């Protein structure tokens, strides 16, 4: 027998040993092993089938979890079964106190009052320190129901979901909101449009064209319950509404319950969390912002986020003050001075006043700064900003200088590039890409990304065909939106997507998203989002946890997702399989049902998907009664 140390020489013959008996045994053994392996493989494949896509798309898709339970994407708590509360089993992440059911970590009134009242700095974002972050789950109020489906949600919201009647009294004359039995009704009124937002928008449309597709994105500063944005949706105008968390309790929360895009925010000392040249139209209806104060920085900030040729619409004080000054409880001189100051600032920004008719005034930003720079040789107020990044807008101080527009050759050129009209602009190559301002992102990159997300969303709908059912999801969040491909693939569905570009992302692509006619915001996912609990019906998280690996705790991001996701809301995580396994361990302890699903290209991809459903649970009935009484 050859020694284990015997060297092999290419010229020598190998030693062979014949064992006929073992040859015979090996043949039977091999056949048996082959049979067992085949059976085990087939049985294992059947046992671990991750998702079953039904032939009949009308049947709701369910996914079988490892525990044998069905992963159900449908809702079950629209109007009944309201006695469901937490089951008594012990969980790693307990329920927070019911008094925190509307907790907004970075706009917490208790923390805010520690900061300066000057320039309303106390109402800006002030997030908890690492040791102050809550490790519990925010409860829904007792009796919480899934919101009305769109478009009914524009006009109705359940009282139990936002149990506040204050606005029904304070704004009764203005037709903001009415309480009717178990629900609120939104007549569509506002402070300056008591006859309804639709009629008010009709008045605006007589002054500028809202239907030719040139106006797609809008921003509403101090939005109330967002009726202006709600009624613009029927005209294919997508509005980012924002208002502070102040004495008008829950105004942004009402907007979100209505299925209208909104964020908590304020014009104070920091830039708004949007890129430059984002909005085709900006609006203020008695928003009480001191436009000419603090070095004129508020109108300068509106100028930064307005697209070249964009419109600024102002109604309410001081517009038409000669008619309303007594009702506004202000002197004629005071209102006249305010209007003159606004006119002066707008003029210094090179805006053109298009019209003032009754209670509405409209200015237009120039399409480029050629003439404006000529005028700056005469007056330097405000000066142009030195070279900086006009898209930087996360905890960035407002400036009292005019943001430069991209250079042009002629007076007819649109700075930064002219956009196609909606809906063509959705899939046209955005100017920020075609002009090469985003390193490494080309027209080909954009087109491939668009095709990729069309295919991916089709796969999502095959796994969870609730995505194809109109009304099942209305408010959707994409936590790492890149070029907005996910939102673009859903454009024909009755929903809207808040596209987030994380501040840690390699490329600042939020400007591209707005050039496509979509909306979004900047966000650091190591902090809480500026929104109320239960904002979103559906959350999409593409490579978020790989991006934030080592930056902050995975559980803190997941607890924030749990806070802003509605009961029975859905999540799709897309990430490396090892990351998804870690995520699943935590979501199991959040009482979510979930299942890891193969990549759309098959099982051999390391990137996989985790489909998850947040369980329905609320605060117990007795605690809710105590909370209602105390409030």
UniProtKB/TrEMBL annotation:
Location in the cell: Endoplasmic reticulum membrane; Membrane
CDD domains the UniProt entry points to: AdoMet_MTases
EC number: 2.1.1.-
UniProt KW Transferase keyword: yes
Membrane-spanning segments: 27-46
Keyword field contains Ligase: no
GO cellular component terms, semicolon-separated: endoplasmic reticulum membrane; endosome; trans-Golgi network
Superkingdom, natural source: Eukaryota
Mode of membrane association: Single-pass type II membrane protein
InterPro entries in UniProt: Put_SAM_MeTrfase
Record GO terms (molecular function): methyltransferase activity
Principal location listed in the UniProt entry: endoplasmic reticulum
Keywords of this entry: Glycoprotein, Membrane, Methyltransferase, Signal-anchor, Transferase, Transmembrane, Transmembrane helix
GO biological process: methylation
Similarity comment: Belongs to the methyltransferase superfamily.
PANTHER family: METHYLTRANSFERASE, SAM-DEPENDENT METHYLTRANSFERASE
The protein, known as: Methyltransferase
Organism: Populus tomentosa
Biological classification of the source: Eukaryota, Viridiplantae, Streptophyta, Embryophyta, Tracheophyta
């Amino acid at each position: 027998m050859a020694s284990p140390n015997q060297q092999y020489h290419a010229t020598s013959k190998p030693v062979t040993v014949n064992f006929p008996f073992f040859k015979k045994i090996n043949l039977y053994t091999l056949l048996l092993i082959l049979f067992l392996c085949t059976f085990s493989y087939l049985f294992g494949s059947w046992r671990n089938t991750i998702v079953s896509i039904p032939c009949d798309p009308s049947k709701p898709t369910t996914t079988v979890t490892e525990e044998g339970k069905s992963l159900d994407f449908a809702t079950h708590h629209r109007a009944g079964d309201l006695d469901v509360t937490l089951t008594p089993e012990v969980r790693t992440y307990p329920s927070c106190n019911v008094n925190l059911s509307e907790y907004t970590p970075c706009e917490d009134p208790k923390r805010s009052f520690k900061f300066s009242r000057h320039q309303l700095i106390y109402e800006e974002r002030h997030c908890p320190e690492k040791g102050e972050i809550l490790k519990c789950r925010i409860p829904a109020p007792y009796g919480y129901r899934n919101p009305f489906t769109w478009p009914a949600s524009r006009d109705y919201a359940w009282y139990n979901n936002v149990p506040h009647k204050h606005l029904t009294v304070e704004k009764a004359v203005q037709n903001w909101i009415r309480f009717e039995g178990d629900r609120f009704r939104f007549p569509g009124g506002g402070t300056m449009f008591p006859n309804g937002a639709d009629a008010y928008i009709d008045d605006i449309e007589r002054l500028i064209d809202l239907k030719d597709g040139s106006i797609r994105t809008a921003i509403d500063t101090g939005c109330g319950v967002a009726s202006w944005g709600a009624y613009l949706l029927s005209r294919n105008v997508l509005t980012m509404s924002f208002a502070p968390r102040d004495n008008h309790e829950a105004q942004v929360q009402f907007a979100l319950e209505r299925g209208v895009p909104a964020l908590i925010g304020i014009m104070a000392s920091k830039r708004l969390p949007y890129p430059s040249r984002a909005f085709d139209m900006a609006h203020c209806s008695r928003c009480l912002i001191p436009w000419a104060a603090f070095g004129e920085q508020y109108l300068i900030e509106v100028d930064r986020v307005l697209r070249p040729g964009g419109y600024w619409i102002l109604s309410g004080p001081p517009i038409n003050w000669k008619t309303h000054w007594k009702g506004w409880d202000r002197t004629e001189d005071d209102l006249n001075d305010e209007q003159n100051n606004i006119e002066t600032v707008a003029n210094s920004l090179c805006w053109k006043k298009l019209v003032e008719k009754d209670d509405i005034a409209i200015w237009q930003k120039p399409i480029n700064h050629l003439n404006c720079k000529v005028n700056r040789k005469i007056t330097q107020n405000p000066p142009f900003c030195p070279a900086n990044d006009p898209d930087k807008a996360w905890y960035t101080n407002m400036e009292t200088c005019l943001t430069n527009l991209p250079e042009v050759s002629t007076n007819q050129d649109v700075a930064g590039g002219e956009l196609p009209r909606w809906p063509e602009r959705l899939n046209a190559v955005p100017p920020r890409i075609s002009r090469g301002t985003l390193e490494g992102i080309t027209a080909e990159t954009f087109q491939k990304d668009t095709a990729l997300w069309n295919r991916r969303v089709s796969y999502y709908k095959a796994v969870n065909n609730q995505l194809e059912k109109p009304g099942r999801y209305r408010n959707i969040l994409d936590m790492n939106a890149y070029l907005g491909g996910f939102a673009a693939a859903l454009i024909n569905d009755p929903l809207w997507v808040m596209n987030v570009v994380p501040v840690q992302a390699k490329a600042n692509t939020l400007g591209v998203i707005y050039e496509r006619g979509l909306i979004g915001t900047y966000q650091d996912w190591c902090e809480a989002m500026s929104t109320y609990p239960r904002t979103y019906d559906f959350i999409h998280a593409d490579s978020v946890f790989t991006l934030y690996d080592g930056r902050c705790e995975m559980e803190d991001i997941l607890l924030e997702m749990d806070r802003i996701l509605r009961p029975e809301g859905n999540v799709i995580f897309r990430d490396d399989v090892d990351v998804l396994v870690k995520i699943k361990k935590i979501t199991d302890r959040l009482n979510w049902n979930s299942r890891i699903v193969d990549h759309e290209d098959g099982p051999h991809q390391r990137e996989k998907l985790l489909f998850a459903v947040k369980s329905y649970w609320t605060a117990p009935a007795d605690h809710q009664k105590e909370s209602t009484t105390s409030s």
